[in-house]
Amino acid sequence: MTYVEELLESVAQRLRPSPETLEKAKLYAEKLVKSVEELFGPGTASVEGSFARGTMVRSREEVDIFIHFKPETPVERAAEDVLKRGTELVKNLGGTVRLRYASHPYVEGFLEGLRVNLVPCYDTEYGKWITPVDRTPYHTRYVKSVLDERMADEVRLLKAFLMNDGLYGAEIRNKGFSGYVCELLIIRFGSFLQLVRQASGWKPPVVLDGEKPMSPASAITLLDPVDKTRNAAAAVSLTTLSKLIMKSKLFLKEPSDSYFLSRTSFKPSVEGRCFLAVVLDVPERPPDVLWGELTKTLEGLAKALSGYGFKPLRTDRWFEDGKGLLIFELESLSLPQVYLHTGPPVWSMNAVEFIDEQARKQDLAAYPWVEGERLCSLRRRRFTNAADFVKHLIDGDLASFSKNLRPFLKKSKIYTNLDEVYSAMSEEGRIFLDDFVRTCPNFIAQYHSLG
Amino acid sequence: MTYVEELLESVAQRLRPSPETLEKAKLYAEKLVKSVEELFGPGTASVEGSFARGTMVRSREEVDIFIHFKPETPVERAAEDVLKRGTELVKNLGGTVRLRYASHPYVEGFLEGLRVNLVPCYDTEYGKWITPVDRTPYHTRYVKSVLDERMADEVRLLKAFLMNDGLYGAEIRNKGFSGYVCELLIIRFGSFLQLVRQASGWKPPVVLDGEKPMSPASAITLLDPVDKTRNAAAAVSLTTLSKLIMKSKLFLKEPSDSYFLSRTSFKPSVEGRCFLAVVLDVPERPPDVLWGELTKTLEGLAKALSGYGFKPLRTDRWFEDGKGLLIFELESLSLPQVYLHTGPPVWSMNAVEFIDEQARKQDLAAYPWVEGERLCSLRRRRFTNAADFVKHLIDGDLASFSKNLRPFLKKSKIYTNLDEVYSAMSEEGRIFLDDFVRTCPNFIAQYHSLG
Questions:
Q1: Do A445 and B367 touch (CB under 8 A)?
Q2: What is the pTM of this model?
Q3: How far is B304 from chain A (nearest CA, A)?
Q4: β-bridge mates for residue A323, sequence order
Q5: B314–A370 C-beta distance less than 8 A
Q6: Residues of B in contact with A370 (CB under 8 A)
Q7: A139-159: pLDDT as tens digits
Q8: Do B304 and B315 reside in the same domain of the chain?
Q9: CATH code for position A161
Q10: Please, are residues B51 and B29 in contact by the beta-carbon 8 Å criterion?
Q11: A267 inside domain
């Protein structure tokens, strides 16, 4: 075995769930299937997800039980049924329960520390999916039919490699690789090492199946073997894909288990750097919806800042437990008082009009002149301070904000002092802030042995 | 007569030299021709310029006497001869003398307050010009053959219209319209008003003769009738031409004698505006050479400032009596401490090298991250203050400066306080500064009735 193979073997061992946990998962899966079938009828329960496929990662163990409905059942009724009776069911087994939302609601329970999910789905004809999870049983069947124990280890390596840099999970939060996509990539390339070698040479857009990107927006195209009209990796953003490419290069240059298992604690200097944070209460909503709303609002603010002359160098958003954060690193928190206003060329129809108009402007700083063939004037900025400008945007609904967040934005607080942002955050929020302030992803910090 | 025709008639009257001055000019022209022919031989003197052509403007009267040499005479000898014996000649007539330089040296004298110029030229075959002024006698002959008294008034109107905004004169200082070009324009369009009506509709590049611009750089092409291979208006810059276009539009909208005869005294607010001035002693050199050197140095500094992130909104240069000034209006005198450094895409050959390199940079402000498909990092600026940066450029010869000005630049003073620049300037320099600070050309100030 080469050095890197030995390294991966040792990491893979550490990623396998313990026999005790597997035993516990097996036990509860059986109990849950039995209970579901008692309540919903025979043949209504199936075991899905990484447990069913044997690709669970240690300390991320969970059991997905799908509850199957007939296509005639209205979606709302199926959801209600699962939320109500699923909750009772978990409680009867001695567990605790949270309601969760992905693309649709499901029940998340905890049984002796083991996470279990009860998810409603439909038994539909192939291709006539009613909800996005209706494909999942087909995925499980497909993966189980081709994946052996050795390949399950490779899937775990890939998942951990991605998780360690926030590249895992197809939700809007991460725009990353789903568990299913990880499985497909290992099936396709045979091993984690083969995949990483390939990935280190990718140039986006990457097309692994078919002849062109599924849509111009797809960073990577990987057709779903159980539904060839679908790009299984559609959720992966260009940034996420690019991080995988870069991380693959660095891993191959200097292989280390830190790319799978370690988090940096490096704290960079913030001297001379400028941050602006909007801290707001966020409403109770399905997480994917809220991530979407926060993302839209972040992008709207960034665009408005940038259009006004501020330079957002980096942006990110976060929420947890009712508290949300939009954060910007700006080149500067202040702008010069005046700016160059470029008018029409002297030969244009409205050159005289421009000269007339400028003279009437309250914010005129200097009368028009001629530079080359163009008229220019000097104008005064109404806002020279980023926080004032953001407050003005929020108060007047002047940027492209998520409609649902507007009332919450109005009550938000704007900070430009990083210490104050830290004070306003929970423990989890501070970890997010550390990541943001550090700028470099975990894998680059590991590569440089920072922290 | 229309209102504008009456207005122009009245302005034209005020632009005609007084009979007394014309008489004096005629007298001294005859005396000078006689003296030159006594010294240099018969047929060696000719009367040229606006006096010979009858297009002199009141209070700008001057008499040009050309001294003709045979093509065999070396250029240096001809010049030396004129400088030495021309000086004696003017003094013998009771005048005072300065040496001047255009493309080559000439003698400028004053006789009872009348300016006279003694200029060496060559009698060459048509087209075989030795110095640029050898064409002048042909120009004089041509203009005299087609221009009558009425048209001379029109030429004076055009000259005054241009002079009042620094658009007159082909030297590097103004990059404007020569007297000869003014005469050609009136010959072509018949009157000042016809020209202005045409000019108000021009779109650069303007081609009045031929089929295309003489060179891609020519803002306006007007073939010289005595030398059809030459663009008589080659010296006119795009900015100068554009000012004429704009001024023509405003004049036609609101005709007024102030476009010919009045200077604004409007002083704008400078609140929030940023100026940087380099004040230097300048060497004794032909003015066109010195204007060229100052222009090159100004452009070199502006380019360096701009490349570093400062925003020069406007620039200009000036000199007189051994004192030079380079002045910049900047958006800001300071820059943020950090800036975004954009690296290669993750898929490029040197992505890993970029990550390695950045970590070694002393000015690294934050380690690289991945945005889209690109690597970026945050770097610290060495200079955040414009004056420090300019001093650094000058001390290290780090911008494209005129070689001859470098030692003078090294001893220059840099100011960012406008009052201090005013204090460092002569009366003439302060007028230049007023114009610069006002931003708008005189004609826009007149249009808005400012000052």
A1: yes
A2: 0.85
A3: 19
A4: A281, A320
A5: no
A6: 239, 242-243, 246, 441
A7: 999 999 999 999 999 999 999
A8: yes
A9: 1.10.1410.30
A10: yes
A11: no
